[in-house]
Amino acid sequence: MKRLFQLGISLALSVLVGYLIYRGVPDWGRAWRVMIQGRPQFLLAGFAFVMLHMVLRAVRWGVLLSPVKRGISLKNLFSLTLIKYTVNIIPPRAGEVAASLLLAGKERVSAASVIAGSLLERILDMMTVVVIFGFYMAFFSHWYAPSSERGQTIMLAIQSYSLKGFIVLCLGFVVLAFLLRSNQWQNRLPGRLRNILLPFLDGFRGLQQGGVLFQAVVLSIAIWLVITVQLWCFMHAYLDEFPFVGSLFLMAITVVGVAIPTPGGAGGFQFFMDLALVNFFARYLSTADPQSQAAGISNGSYLVSMIPVILIGLFFLNREGLSFGSVSRLAAQKPL
Domain boundaries in the chain? Predict the structure, then answer.
Protein backbone atom coordinates (compact mmCIF):
# COMPACT_ATOMS: atom_id res chain seq x y z
CA MET A 1 0.00 0.00 0.00
CA LYS A 2 2.83 2.39 0.89
CA ARG A 3 4.57 1.70 -2.41
CA LEU A 4 1.35 2.32 -4.36
CA PHE A 5 0.91 5.62 -2.53
CA GLN A 6 4.47 6.68 -3.38
CA LEU A 7 3.93 5.67 -6.99
CA GLY A 8 0.70 7.64 -7.12
CA ILE A 9 2.35 10.78 -5.71
CA SER A 10 5.23 10.49 -8.18
CA LEU A 11 2.93 10.01 -11.16
CA ALA A 12 0.68 12.88 -10.04
CA LEU A 13 3.68 15.21 -9.79
CA SER A 14 4.88 14.01 -13.20
CA VAL A 15 1.51 14.80 -14.74
CA LEU A 16 1.40 18.22 -13.06
CA VAL A 17 4.90 19.20 -14.14
CA GLY A 18 4.27 17.78 -17.63
CA TYR A 19 1.11 19.86 -17.91
CA LEU A 20 2.96 23.03 -16.86
CA ILE A 21 5.66 22.37 -19.45
CA TYR A 22 3.12 21.52 -22.17
CA ARG A 23 1.11 24.67 -21.47
CA GLY A 24 4.20 26.88 -21.62
CA VAL A 25 5.48 25.68 -25.01
CA PRO A 26 3.74 27.34 -27.97
CA ASP A 27 5.19 25.10 -30.71
CA TRP A 28 6.25 21.55 -29.83
CA GLY A 29 7.19 20.91 -33.45
CA ARG A 30 9.83 23.62 -33.24
CA ALA A 31 10.97 22.33 -29.85
CA TRP A 32 11.47 18.88 -31.40
CA ARG A 33 13.47 20.32 -34.31
CA VAL A 34 15.69 22.26 -31.90
CA MET A 35 16.25 19.14 -29.77
CA ILE A 36 17.44 16.91 -32.63
CA GLN A 37 19.65 19.59 -34.21
CA GLY A 38 22.15 19.83 -31.38
CA ARG A 39 25.80 19.91 -32.47
CA PRO A 40 27.20 16.40 -31.91
CA GLN A 41 30.66 17.50 -30.75
CA PHE A 42 29.23 19.47 -27.84
CA LEU A 43 26.71 16.76 -26.96
CA LEU A 44 29.52 14.20 -26.84
CA ALA A 45 31.65 16.57 -24.74
CA GLY A 46 28.69 17.04 -22.38
CA PHE A 47 28.28 13.27 -22.05
CA ALA A 48 32.01 12.89 -21.36
CA PHE A 49 31.64 15.30 -18.44
CA VAL A 50 28.57 13.34 -17.26
CA MET A 51 30.74 10.23 -16.96
CA LEU A 52 33.57 12.19 -15.30
CA HIS A 53 30.98 13.42 -12.81
CA MET A 54 30.03 9.79 -12.07
CA VAL A 55 33.67 8.80 -11.55
CA LEU A 56 34.20 11.70 -9.13
CA ARG A 57 31.08 10.69 -7.19
CA ALA A 58 32.40 7.15 -6.89
CA VAL A 59 35.79 8.39 -5.66
CA ARG A 60 34.14 10.69 -3.10
CA TRP A 61 31.94 7.86 -1.85
CA GLY A 62 35.03 5.78 -1.23
CA VAL A 63 36.77 8.66 0.57
CA LEU A 64 33.78 9.18 2.90
CA LEU A 65 33.67 5.46 3.68
CA SER A 66 37.42 5.18 4.29
CA PRO A 67 36.97 5.49 8.11
CA VAL A 68 34.69 2.43 7.89
CA LYS A 69 36.89 0.48 5.47
CA ARG A 70 39.92 1.52 3.46
CA GLY A 71 40.55 0.43 -0.10
CA ILE A 72 36.94 -0.14 -1.19
CA SER A 73 36.96 -1.21 -4.84
CA LEU A 74 36.54 1.77 -7.18
CA LYS A 75 34.98 -0.63 -9.68
CA ASN A 76 32.20 -1.45 -7.21
CA LEU A 77 31.78 2.19 -6.23
CA PHE A 78 31.47 3.29 -9.88
CA SER A 79 29.04 0.59 -10.95
CA LEU A 80 26.84 1.12 -7.91
CA THR A 81 26.88 4.89 -8.43
CA LEU A 82 25.36 4.31 -11.86
CA ILE A 83 22.91 1.82 -10.37
CA LYS A 84 21.78 4.56 -7.97
CA TYR A 85 20.72 6.75 -10.88
CA THR A 86 19.05 3.86 -12.66
CA VAL A 87 17.03 2.77 -9.64
CA ASN A 88 15.96 6.39 -9.07
CA ILE A 89 13.89 6.35 -12.26
CA ILE A 90 11.25 4.33 -10.39
CA PRO A 91 9.39 5.56 -7.27
CA PRO A 92 10.19 5.90 -4.44
CA ARG A 93 13.67 6.73 -5.83
CA ALA A 94 15.48 4.55 -3.32
CA GLY A 95 18.69 4.31 -5.35
CA GLU A 96 20.96 5.49 -2.53
CA VAL A 97 19.57 2.92 -0.10
CA ALA A 98 19.62 0.03 -2.58
CA ALA A 99 23.16 0.78 -3.81
CA SER A 100 24.39 1.23 -0.23
CA LEU A 101 23.01 -2.17 0.78
CA LEU A 102 24.59 -3.81 -2.26
CA LEU A 103 27.96 -2.20 -1.50
CA ALA A 104 27.75 -3.21 2.16
CA GLY A 105 27.20 -6.82 1.10
CA LYS A 106 30.06 -6.78 -1.39
CA GLU A 107 32.57 -5.15 0.98
CA ARG A 108 31.31 -6.85 4.17
CA VAL A 109 30.76 -3.63 6.12
CA SER A 110 27.85 -2.25 8.11
CA ALA A 111 24.92 -1.35 5.86
CA ALA A 112 23.93 1.48 8.22
CA SER A 113 27.42 3.01 7.90
CA VAL A 114 27.28 2.92 4.11
CA ILE A 115 23.80 4.47 4.08
CA ALA A 116 25.07 7.21 6.41
CA GLY A 117 27.95 7.84 3.99
CA SER A 118 25.44 8.23 1.16
CA LEU A 119 23.42 10.65 3.28
CA LEU A 120 26.56 12.65 3.99
CA GLU A 121 27.13 12.84 0.24
CA ARG A 122 23.71 14.44 -0.21
CA ILE A 123 24.42 16.95 2.58
CA LEU A 124 27.77 17.90 1.02
CA ASP A 125 26.05 18.26 -2.36
CA MET A 126 23.45 20.65 -0.96
CA MET A 127 26.02 22.76 0.85
CA THR A 128 28.29 22.91 -2.19
CA VAL A 129 25.48 23.98 -4.50
CA VAL A 130 24.41 26.70 -2.07
CA VAL A 131 27.99 27.99 -1.72
CA ILE A 132 28.58 28.03 -5.49
CA PHE A 133 25.24 29.74 -6.04
CA GLY A 134 26.17 32.28 -3.34
CA PHE A 135 29.41 32.95 -5.24
CA TYR A 136 27.38 33.49 -8.41
CA MET A 137 24.96 35.84 -6.61
CA ALA A 138 27.79 37.89 -5.10
CA PHE A 139 29.82 38.42 -8.26
CA PHE A 140 27.81 37.67 -11.40
CA SER A 141 24.05 37.90 -10.81
CA HIS A 142 23.95 41.58 -11.85
CA TRP A 143 25.29 40.57 -15.27
CA TYR A 144 22.22 38.42 -15.93
CA ALA A 145 19.42 40.18 -14.11
CA PRO A 146 15.88 38.80 -14.52
CA SER A 147 14.34 39.94 -17.78
CA SER A 148 10.75 39.59 -16.54
CA GLU A 149 8.63 40.07 -13.45
CA ARG A 150 8.40 36.30 -13.12
CA GLY A 151 12.17 36.09 -13.19
CA GLN A 152 12.42 38.59 -10.34
CA THR A 153 9.98 36.50 -8.29
CA ILE A 154 12.03 33.38 -8.99
CA MET A 155 15.25 35.09 -7.93
CA LEU A 156 13.76 36.33 -4.65
CA ALA A 157 12.44 32.84 -3.85
CA ILE A 158 15.81 31.22 -4.62
CA GLN A 159 17.67 33.73 -2.46
CA SER A 160 15.30 33.22 0.47
CA TYR A 161 15.25 29.43 0.42
CA SER A 162 18.98 29.13 -0.26
CA LEU A 163 19.81 31.19 2.82
CA LYS A 164 17.37 29.26 5.02
CA GLY A 165 18.60 25.93 3.70
CA PHE A 166 22.24 26.87 4.31
CA ILE A 167 21.47 27.87 7.91
CA VAL A 168 19.61 24.60 8.56
CA LEU A 169 22.48 22.54 7.09
CA CYS A 170 25.05 24.40 9.20
CA LEU A 171 23.01 23.77 12.35
CA GLY A 172 22.72 20.12 11.37
CA PHE A 173 26.51 19.87 11.05
CA VAL A 174 26.94 21.43 14.50
CA VAL A 175 24.54 18.90 16.06
CA LEU A 176 26.22 16.03 14.22
CA ALA A 177 29.68 17.18 15.34
CA PHE A 178 28.46 17.21 18.95
CA LEU A 179 27.04 13.69 18.63
CA LEU A 180 30.30 12.41 17.17
CA ARG A 181 32.57 14.08 19.74
CA SER A 182 30.59 13.21 22.86
CA ASN A 183 29.97 9.65 24.04
CA GLN A 184 28.00 10.44 27.16
CA TRP A 185 24.62 10.56 25.40
CA GLN A 186 25.16 7.07 23.98
CA ASN A 187 24.98 5.44 27.42
CA ARG A 188 21.48 6.83 27.93
CA LEU A 189 20.08 5.03 24.91
CA PRO A 190 18.36 1.62 25.07
CA GLY A 191 20.71 -1.13 23.94
CA ARG A 192 18.75 -2.01 20.81
CA LEU A 193 18.57 1.59 19.64
CA ARG A 194 22.27 2.08 20.39
CA ASN A 195 23.17 -0.97 18.30
CA ILE A 196 21.29 0.54 15.34
CA LEU A 197 22.43 4.13 15.73
CA LEU A 198 26.15 3.71 16.37
CA PRO A 199 26.95 1.90 13.08
CA PHE A 200 24.96 4.63 11.31
CA LEU A 201 27.09 7.32 12.97
CA ASP A 202 30.23 5.47 11.85
CA GLY A 203 29.35 6.58 8.33
CA PHE A 204 29.89 10.17 9.45
CA ARG A 205 33.28 9.56 11.01
CA GLY A 206 34.94 11.20 8.01
CA LEU A 207 33.86 14.55 9.48
CA GLN A 208 36.25 13.97 12.38
CA GLN A 209 39.25 13.32 10.13
CA GLY A 210 40.66 16.47 8.58
CA GLY A 211 42.20 14.70 5.61
CA VAL A 212 38.99 12.83 4.73
CA LEU A 213 36.82 15.93 5.13
CA PHE A 214 39.20 18.06 3.05
CA GLN A 215 39.25 15.50 0.23
CA ALA A 216 35.45 15.19 0.32
CA VAL A 217 35.00 18.97 0.15
CA VAL A 218 37.45 19.31 -2.76
CA LEU A 219 35.75 16.45 -4.61
CA SER A 220 32.31 17.99 -3.97
CA ILE A 221 33.43 21.29 -5.50
CA ALA A 222 34.96 19.40 -8.44
CA ILE A 223 31.74 17.40 -8.96
CA TRP A 224 29.54 20.47 -9.20
CA LEU A 225 31.99 22.39 -11.37
CA VAL A 226 32.08 19.40 -13.74
CA ILE A 227 28.26 19.41 -13.80
CA THR A 228 28.43 23.13 -14.63
CA VAL A 229 30.82 22.44 -17.52
CA GLN A 230 28.50 19.64 -18.64
CA LEU A 231 25.56 22.09 -18.83
CA TRP A 232 27.74 24.68 -20.57
CA CYS A 233 28.58 22.10 -23.26
CA PHE A 234 24.88 21.29 -23.72
CA MET A 235 24.06 24.99 -24.09
CA HIS A 236 26.74 25.34 -26.79
CA ALA A 237 25.27 22.32 -28.57
CA TYR A 238 22.16 24.42 -29.23
CA LEU A 239 23.26 28.06 -28.93
CA ASP A 240 26.04 29.97 -30.66
CA GLU A 241 26.93 31.76 -27.44
CA PHE A 242 26.32 31.14 -23.75
CA PRO A 243 28.36 32.34 -20.72
CA PHE A 244 30.04 29.83 -18.46
CA VAL A 245 28.95 31.73 -15.33
CA GLY A 246 25.38 31.49 -16.64
CA SER A 247 25.79 27.72 -16.40
CA LEU A 248 26.42 28.15 -12.67
CA PHE A 249 22.90 29.51 -12.37
CA LEU A 250 21.49 26.71 -14.54
CA MET A 251 23.23 24.17 -12.33
CA ALA A 252 21.72 25.60 -9.15
CA ILE A 253 18.17 25.99 -10.45
CA THR A 254 17.98 22.57 -12.14
CA VAL A 255 18.96 20.96 -8.81
CA VAL A 256 15.59 22.19 -7.53
CA GLY A 257 13.84 20.52 -10.46
CA VAL A 258 15.64 17.21 -10.02
CA ALA A 259 14.66 17.21 -6.33
CA ILE A 260 10.98 16.93 -7.30
CA PRO A 261 10.19 13.21 -6.80
CA THR A 262 9.27 12.43 -10.40
CA PRO A 263 10.86 9.35 -12.04
CA GLY A 264 14.50 10.24 -12.65
CA GLY A 265 13.78 13.94 -12.11
CA ALA A 266 12.13 14.04 -15.55
CA GLY A 267 9.97 17.08 -16.04
CA GLY A 268 11.33 19.00 -13.08
CA PHE A 269 14.74 19.37 -14.74
CA GLN A 270 13.18 20.64 -17.97
CA PHE A 271 10.70 22.94 -16.24
CA PHE A 272 13.32 24.78 -14.20
CA MET A 273 15.83 24.97 -17.04
CA ASP A 274 13.11 26.48 -19.24
CA LEU A 275 12.34 29.03 -16.52
CA ALA A 276 16.00 30.01 -16.26
CA LEU A 277 16.63 30.28 -20.00
CA VAL A 278 13.48 32.29 -20.78
CA ASN A 279 13.55 34.60 -17.76
CA PHE A 280 17.31 35.16 -17.28
CA PHE A 281 19.10 34.35 -20.54
CA ALA A 282 16.56 35.38 -23.18
CA ARG A 283 19.22 37.44 -24.95
CA TYR A 284 20.84 34.19 -26.12
CA LEU A 285 17.57 32.71 -27.44
CA SER A 286 15.57 33.38 -30.56
CA THR A 287 13.28 36.40 -30.20
CA ALA A 288 10.62 34.69 -32.33
CA ASP A 289 9.77 31.83 -29.96
CA PRO A 290 12.14 31.52 -26.96
CA GLN A 291 9.82 29.18 -25.02
CA SER A 292 9.80 26.50 -27.71
CA GLN A 293 13.54 26.81 -28.21
CA ALA A 294 14.17 26.51 -24.46
CA ALA A 295 11.98 23.39 -24.33
CA GLY A 296 14.01 21.76 -27.10
CA ILE A 297 17.28 22.60 -25.33
CA SER A 298 16.15 21.32 -21.93
CA ASN A 299 14.74 18.07 -23.32
CA GLY A 300 17.84 17.41 -25.41
CA SER A 301 20.12 18.11 -22.44
CA TYR A 302 18.14 15.78 -20.20
CA LEU A 303 18.08 12.91 -22.69
CA VAL A 304 21.81 13.05 -23.45
CA SER A 305 22.74 13.28 -19.77
CA MET A 306 20.35 10.61 -18.45
CA ILE A 307 19.56 7.98 -21.10
CA PRO A 308 23.16 6.67 -21.50
CA VAL A 309 23.62 6.66 -17.72
CA ILE A 310 20.42 4.64 -17.27
CA LEU A 311 21.42 2.17 -19.98
CA ILE A 312 24.87 1.64 -18.46
CA GLY A 313 23.25 1.35 -15.04
CA LEU A 314 20.89 -1.31 -16.39
CA PHE A 315 23.90 -3.23 -17.68
CA PHE A 316 25.51 -3.16 -14.23
CA LEU A 317 22.18 -4.05 -12.61
CA ASN A 318 21.85 -7.06 -14.89
CA ARG A 319 25.46 -8.04 -14.19
CA GLU A 320 24.59 -8.14 -10.49
CA GLY A 321 21.74 -10.52 -11.35
CA LEU A 322 19.15 -8.03 -10.11
CA SER A 323 15.88 -6.59 -11.40
CA PHE A 324 13.95 -3.47 -10.46
CA GLY A 325 11.66 -5.63 -8.35
CA SER A 326 14.48 -7.26 -6.39
CA VAL A 327 16.19 -3.91 -5.86
CA SER A 328 12.94 -2.39 -4.58
CA ARG A 329 12.58 -5.25 -2.11
CA LEU A 330 16.20 -4.79 -1.07
CA ALA A 331 15.67 -1.07 -0.46
CA ALA A 332 12.64 -1.86 1.70
CA GLN A 333 14.76 -3.90 4.11
CA LYS A 334 15.74 -2.40 7.47
CA PRO A 335 19.56 -2.35 7.78
CA LEU A 336 19.91 -3.39 11.40
Answer: 45-331
